[in-house]
Write a structure and sequence with these properties.
It is a single chain. The protein has helices spanning 49-58, 79-92, 106-110, 115-119, 134-141, 148-162, 176-189, and strands spanning 5-8, 11-14, 66-69, 97-102, 124-128, 165-171, 193-196. By secondary structure, the chain is α/β, with parallel strands linked by helices. The chain has a single domain (5-196), classed as TIM Barrel (Alpha-Beta Barrel), CATH 3.20.20. It has a seven-stranded mixed β-sheet with strand order 1-2-3-4-5-6-7. A hairpin with a 2-residue loop joins strand 1 (5-8) and strand 2 (11-14). The two termini are 27 Å apart. The structure holds iron/sulfur cluster. Iron/sulfur cluster (SF4) is lined by residues 20, 22-24, 27, 29, 73-74, 103, 128, 141.
Amino acid sequence: MANIIYVYRNNVYFNITNRCTCNCIFCIRKENETIGDAKEMWHKHTPSFDEIKMAIEKFDFSPYRSAVFCGYGEPTCAYDNLLETAKYMKQKYPQIQLRLNTNGLGERFLKKPIVEELSKYIDSVSISLNAPNPARYQEVTNPCFDNAFEDMIAFSKKSKLYFKEVKFSVVDVISPEEIEESKKLAEHLGIPLRVRAYT
Ligand code: SF4
């Protein structure tokens, strides 16, 4: 069975699904079969909540202060398990800060609001801005929806109202000019931007 929990650069991550609504040009899944201490990242089936719970029971969280929903897929594509896992973690390990790494298209995909509900159990969110405008966003992320940029921005604005902390990220596969435009957009929205190096 693939790793549901793995450690990468001293951080704990949850890999709860391989489904995703994007096909980003920089996606690590295209290059690497595994990451960190994970032996296998591709699930044969999407893990059930019981399987996730079992992975939590087996894992020693004592050296860690935070855990991130990320993995080889978009966590909101497994929304029910994401929510249940976050709830369970908050009950069992209230001292651990939980972060969601997301493409910000969860509400579009699920066709329902999720931000407020998630913010009850998850402390912070990192949203992939990926590009400074709709046209480049479509090219860089290849989402399975039209006009996805608008949905991601709407998700970000809403996240700012509910989560304790919200961040944007872009990967430096876009041009320096586009990174500058992304910084301006992030500043305009009042959300800090992290520029990640493509590795
Ligand atoms: S959103 Fe994340 S998992 Fe999905 S394709 Fe983009 S980088 Fe990969």
